[in-house]
Design goal:
This protein has 4 helices and 2 strands. It is mainly alpha-helical.
Length: 178
């Protein structure tokens, strides 16, 4: 009975992640459409205050237009990146929903890859954002570094992939013993 419940929850999560990924892709196209047709007030924006800011330095004045141009470049890339991650995670939950075991090397590698990508995003995005806004800005420089929950989630997924690998090794050992 518990397996059926686990499969239903996995199926629900797979659908939810697909919906979220599709929503992100839709937001990209709606944002570009609104900006292209000069909808006043339509712009992308980036919230740099999410997470724990470790270092923040700004020189001179960066205008709102320069922030908007930077967001116009980075927001679609970020939303596309997370759409990819959500579709990958959705396929893992689809796999679990049909009854496949998570104790397989391909499953473990996929979990590790998602964790690693989340860690890399959280480590490198502040540097990319700082560099891009400093290049776009005519009169200012910005540098900030922060870590958000994506870093922690990525670490947890990376550790979970190690646990899955350990389970795979135990399963192989048990199979060899029998």
């Amino acid at each position: 009975m518990q397996v059926a419940k686990f499969q239903r929850v996995s199926h629900f999560l797979a659908i939810l992640l697909k919906i979220m990924a599709s929503f992100f892709i839709t937001i990209i196209f709606l944002g570009w459409f609104a900006i292209y047709f000069k909808n006043p007030g339509a712009q992308f924006s980036i919230d740099t205050n999410s997470g724990a800011t470790i270092f923040y330095s700004i020189e001179s004045r960066i205008t709102d237009a320069e922030y908007a141009r930077t967001a116009f470049i980075l927001v679609p890339i970020t939303l596309g990146f997370f759409s990819y991650l959500f579709f990958k995670a959705s396929s893992l939950f689809d796999d679990l929903a049909v009854g496949n075991s998570p104790f397989r090397s391909d499953f473990s590698k996929a979990v590790r890859k998602i964790g690693f990508l989340m860690i890399a995003y959280d480590l490198f995005f502040p540097f990319i954002y700082s560099a891009l806004i400093s290049l776009i800005s005519e009169s200012g420089k910005l540098f900030y570094f922060s870590l958000s929950s994506y870093f922690l989630i990525g670490l947890i997924l990376y550790v979970a992939s190690g646990i899955l690998n350990y389970g795979i090794q135990l399963q192989e050992l048990a199979d060899e013993t029998i």
